[in-house]
């Protein structure tokens, strides 16, 4: 398999897709054209390979028009999906247009309305997601590129009867693993806490006892804001905040990290966001990479603003545990499943369901994603996960020492 390339992106003969035309009209009506031309210029002058075929605002419109109906493909690096998303956001990360977007900063809940451009980003993600829900989003040719990209490990997942053709890309993206490939550590020890997702551990932060605040790069983020004023928000005062992130090639279903009763399950609307930086590769070329660390300098606490799910589980041996699957960039849907029943985007609260450690509780659609776990102070949770190490669903990441 050869390496995929970005572009060139021809101007559509029949006009732009409605979502792209809306951006074009927005830029023209607000007299932003010079600012966006500057953003494209600044992005290209970095010399990144991803911007080779985007040298003006018209090229960027053409790229977006291609992206909204893009049939995802991969290359041997397993990073082409990310490259496409990074290219879109890299232009929007430039200083000349950043102020047109809702800031990533603490606020009260509910947060202020999104700016016109940030609202457009959410709608673009939804438009892209609508196409990725159709069978046209997965072809025989595109499917083969994911089998060839080794880090996707497609052979370790369940294939639907009759194969993947006729299914959507989002169905493929949220594929289930083969039985036995994610054993659960300590199934008979309820104090053992396991990874809720195939993800890379990014760190653990203390939550202030007095005001339930997590400090990230000097910014005070409240747990109440993260949990959208859940009645359980104050229960995590003095506890721990744990963050990990998923790559597009990771398994994108989440599972209960502990045994217990579901106290709350809902979907919280929010922004779509991705901070992008330039990295020089060993071959001397500059490529775009996403910044995913929780305390990244320009986006510390972005998880508090993203579209996200919330599942609060009350475990007899661990106490209350909040699980937050968090959408990133083009993840246009966080879908909650409790006891195997999809509750979807309507935020329906499912209380009283009993889950076992390792039971499926949610899944993501297209994109990279994050997972956050909150623990109570009295749980005396000891984090065993190693920084920047990748863990699979069911692998132990912590243990609780709650008083009997």
Protein described:
It is a single chain. This protein has 404 residues and is of the alpha+beta class. It has a domain at 185-289 and 299-399. It contains nine helices and 19 strands. The strands form five sheets. An eight-stranded antiparallel beta sheet has the order 14-7-10-11-16-5-2-18, with no helix packed on it. Strands 6-15-12-13 form a four-stranded antiparallel beta sheet, with no helix packed on it. The longest helix is centred in the first third of the chain and has 17 residues, at 116-132. It is globular and about 65 Å long.
Topology:
Elements: H1 18-29, H2 33-44, H3 57-67, H4 80-92, H5 95-98, H6 116-132, H7 140-148, H8 169-173, E1 192-194, E2 199-206, E3 213-216, E4 219-222, H9 223-226, E5 240-246, E6 253-255, E7 260-268, E8 275-280, E9 286-291, E10 308-315, E11 319-327, E12 334-338, E13 341-342, E14 354-355, E15 360-364, E16 369-375, E17 382-383, E18 390-391, E19 396-399
Antiparallel strand pairs: 1-19, 2-5, 2-18, 3-4, 5-16, 6-15, 7-10, 7-14, 8-9, 10-11, 11-16, 12-13, 12-15, 17-19
């Amino acid at each position: 398999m050869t390496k995929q390339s970005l572009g060139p992106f021809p101007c559509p003969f029949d006009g732009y897709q409605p979502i792209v035309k809306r951006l074009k009209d927005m830029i023209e009506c607000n007299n932003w054209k010079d600012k966006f031309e500057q953003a494209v210029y600044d992005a290209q002058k970095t010399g990144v390979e991803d911007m080779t075929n985007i040298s003006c605002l018209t090229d960027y419109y053409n790229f977006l028009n291609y992206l909204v109906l893009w049939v995802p493909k991969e290359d041997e690096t397993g990073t082409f999906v990310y490259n496409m998303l990074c290219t879109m956001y890299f232009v929007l990360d430039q200083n000349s247009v950043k102020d047109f977007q809702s800031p990533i900063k603490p606020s009260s809940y509910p947060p202020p309305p999104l700016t016109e451009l940030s609202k457009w980003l959410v709608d673009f993600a939804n438009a892209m997601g609508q196409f990725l829900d159709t069978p046209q989003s997965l072809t025989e040719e595109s499917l083969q590129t994911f089998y060839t990209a080794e880090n996707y490990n497609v052979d370790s997942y369940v294939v639907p009867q009759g194969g993947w053709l006729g299914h959507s890309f989002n169905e493929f993206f949220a594929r289930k693993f083969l039985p036995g490939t994610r054993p659960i550590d300590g199934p008979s020890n309820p104090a053992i806490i396991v990874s809720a997702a195939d993800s890379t551990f990014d760190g653990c932060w203390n939550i202030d006892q007095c005001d339930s605040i997590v400090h990230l790069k000097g910014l005070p983020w409240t747990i109440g804001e993260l949990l959208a004023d859940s009645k359980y928000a104050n229960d995590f005062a003095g506890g721990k905040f744990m963050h990990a992130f998923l790559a597009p090639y990771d398994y994108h279903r989440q599972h209960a990290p502990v045994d217990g009763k579901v106290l709350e399950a809902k979907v919280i609307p929010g922004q779509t966001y991705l901070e992008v930086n330039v990295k020089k590769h060993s071959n001397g070329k500059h490529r775009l990479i996403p910044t995913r660390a929780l305390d990244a300098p320009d986006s510390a606490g972005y998880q508090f603003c993203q579209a996200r799910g919330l599942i609060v589980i009350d475990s007899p041996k661990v106490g209350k545990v909040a699980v937050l699957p968090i959408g990133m960039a083009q993840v246009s849907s966080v879908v909650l499943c409790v006891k195997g029943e999809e509750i979807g985007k309507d935020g329906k609260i499912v209380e009283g369901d009993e889950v076992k450690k390792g039971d499926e509780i949610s899944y993501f659609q297209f994109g990279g994603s994050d997972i956050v776990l909150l623990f109570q102070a009295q749980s005396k949770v000891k984090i065993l996960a190693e920084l920047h190490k990748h863990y699979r669903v069911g692998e132990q990441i912590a243990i609780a020492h709650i008083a009997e």
